[in-house]
Each structure stands twice: as structure tokens, then as C-alpha cells.
Amino acid sequence: RSRYPDRTSKLPYRAKALFAFQKIDGVDVCFFGLHIQEYSSDCPAPNTRRVYISYLDSVNYFKPSYLRTKVYHEIILGYLDYVKQRGYLYAHIWACPPHEGDDYIFHCHPETQKTPKPKRLQDWYKTILDKGKTEGIVFEYKNIFAMCVDEEMRSAVDVYYFDGDFWPQQLEDSIKEIEKEEQEQRQLEAQEMEEGDEPNEEDPTAPEGKNKSSKAKGQKKANKSKKNQVKRNAAKKITSKSFGDALFDKVYQIMEKHKEAFFVVYLHDPKTVCTLPPIQDPDPLINCEIMDGRDAFLNQAKELRLEFSSLRRCKFSTLHLLCDLHNRDNDRFMYNCNNCSKNVETRYHCPECTDFDLCIPCYDKIGHQHTMKKIGLGIDLDQPVVKQEGGATNPAEAKRVKTESIQRCIQSLVHACRCKDEDCHLPSCAKMKKVVQHTRTCKKKKNGGCPICKQLIALCCFHSKNCDDENCPVPFCPSIKQRLKNQSRIANRSRIHGIHEMRRRC
User: Are 294 and 122 in contact (CB under 8 A)?
Assistant: First the structure.
């Protein structure tokens, strides 16, 4: 931002996950996964009307095996045709195989499945795109360096910026290198000025003078080597093509070096961009924690040891995945009353029965045979119950009320953390302040034994995913955001290490 203050700081996109299943022996088996980022017509430049295929992975359980590659091709081309019809102009692909021991989406691949070499993976994508051109789905495709030359890029602001891609991290690393070079240049210039101001009062006949003279000569020799290094760096900049932007000069050289691994797919003729309609997504927005990027599902699979290394294990892992997808609305923050099925946050819990909870009205009305404990933050006590004509709960309205309840709790949490008024007029403020204070002093939260702390942490997780405040006062928010950034950075570093390994082999 300090170098390019005019560039927008937000490039909104919609993340999507495509998974393919096949019934084998009467059981669903997940064999293909694809994570995508869609930047619509409302997204600012340079990401306008672009689609980024961030991760692609598969396990070789599809039957018959001789149709496996064709099925993969059809899934990818089908998606490209889908986004083309919606008005997207570009699709970007980073053809980088996982490094040895790493996984992209599925945890633990079969031993018989080989990881493709970089050249083979690039040829695999070229085969798909050539087929797309034949079928009229792809207008043309080229590597990133050819696109840079054809579109006459002249600044780092023109480089597209995808979440988790190679180029954002490369831009940040290049900025650090430039700042380091500029600092060394300033230090060298300051040192030269100091040397020019020092008088030469050495006596060559004195023994001490000889020592001082030798030290001075050694220092001059070292300074001369530094000057030569600076001159060599300057010579490199002169010999390479220069655009007047030091950052883009570095990026341009890296693009030329790694151009084979990055595909830019033109879905339409760029000249017709003015005739394309605004992009409207027909799919409703679905919040699903394990599908929020590839890290969420992969980390969960590692924690729960959900492997795809054999068909038997793949069946079990797929069952777990489908169970989570179908129960995605049953989050950790809200609970269902076992009597009226109402979604509640504050409830009475029975420690003796298995997963038995009652809302406060049902507990007051029917009670329970065992002693129950009241648990919750006390924020949703005024939540209405939406009923249909027959008396049954309306699922759509119940889901809406549940979402609104979570948002109210998040707003109460943020307000309580910012509020410094001891006599605040909001009734939820005092309650939430007590909960926050309890969490700070609770000794059971480290072992996960405190239900109040577990609920507050879950609420902080909901909040931190959409929080942009660097100095957010909500507890755990900075650490949760840092953890999410570290996971994304580790995944990105793994792919960058893979492409450097590819260049080393070449």
C-alpha cells in the first residue's frame, strides 16, 4: 500500500468447491476435488471477470479406469463452459504438482498413484485446453509471460492478485528485496561521504602509521568490493528490460523464467468485453466451514485421520465428508431443543443423558428426570419461534432466525469488547462482559472442559472470518486471524517450493 496507494485493498471473490462422487459397491466414493475463486464483474481491476482454479486433486478409484482421464477433462471443461456462459472473460491455472509428501485436497493418496512431473502436468492441461478450443469453449490460451507482453503490462498494479497464488507472495518478497537493496545503497553512499570528509594525517615512517595504513587499505578494499557489487546489481538492471518500476522489473524477469507453469485462458475474445452482461451468480451463498478453502478440509482430515490411501478408507472418509456437508447448519454455537426442536444458544443440558438439551420454556414446562445445568451466554432469550400453520417449525424461517441470532451475538460481543461504559443501557452488554471476563480467568478452557469458553471461542471464530480490524479488541480474534494466515502461507510456500524444485530439475 505504501508503494501503490491508489490500488484498492479489497478484491472480493466467491470461493467454490466442486467434488465428484461415484457409487462403488453401493457406497459413495469421492474421487475428484476442485477449489475455485470467482472474481465477478463488480470486482476492481485487475481481477475483473477472472476465474482462478486454485487447487485440483484426485484419487484413482474411478471405474472403469480407462475413462478416468476423460471424466476429469469433462469436469474441467464443463466448469469453464459454465463460467463462460455467465460472462467471465479469463480463467487462470497454476500447473504446479504437489511437493513430495504434500497433499492438496485429499489426505494420503494411494501408493499406486504417482505424482505427475511438472512437464507432464503442463502437457495434461494443454490437452484439456486444446480440446476446449476444438469444442468452442476456449477462445485461446497462452502463458503468463505472453499475456504480459501482448497486453503491454508496465506496472506491478497490472498483475492479477489471487488469494493463495504464487504472485502475491512473490510481490511481497520482491518488495522486501528492493527495500534491502535501497538500504544498502544508502548506507554505502553515507560511508563514501564520511570517507571523503576524513583528512589523511598518517605518517608512513612510524610503525603505528604502518598499521593504520594497512587497516585503511583493508577498509578501502572492502568498500571497493561493495561498490563493485552495487555496480554489478545496477548492470543487471540495465541489461534486463526496464519499465521504470523496480518491482515490476523483478516480476517481469520471474514471469519469463516460470512462464510454462502459468496458463491464462481466454474464454471470450477480449475485444467483446464491452458486450458482456454483468455477472450474476445463480447459486445461493452457502456457508460451510470445511469447504472454506482447501485448508479447512485437509486440516480436518489430518486431525481425524480421514485418509484416502485405500478404497475402504476412502469410503469411510467420504461418508464423514457427506455427513458434515448435510449437517453444516448444525454449528458448534447453536443447539437444538430435544422437545420442540428450536435452535437455541442458551439451554439446559443434562450431564447424564447423551446429548440432551432443553430450551428454557420447555424446561420450565415439562422439566426433566435428572438435574440439568443451565449453559449459554444468555443472548438469545428473546428469540422468536417461527411456526407453520400446522404447528410445525418452518425450516427456512428457522434457519433465517438462527443466522440472525448468531449475528446478534456477534454484535453484542463486539459492542461489549469496545464499550467502556459501566452503566451501559444495553442488557446484553453486561452479560457479555461477564462472559469475556470469565473466559480470561477460566482455567478449564485449555482442556476444553468449560462449555461457556467453548461457545465464546466458537463465536469469536465466526467473527474473525469477516473481521478486517487489525486492532480488534475481541478476544482470540487476532490469534485466529493469524492462524488462518499462517495456514494459507504454509500452503502457498509449499507450492512455491514445488515450482523452484521444478526449475532446478529443468
Answer: no
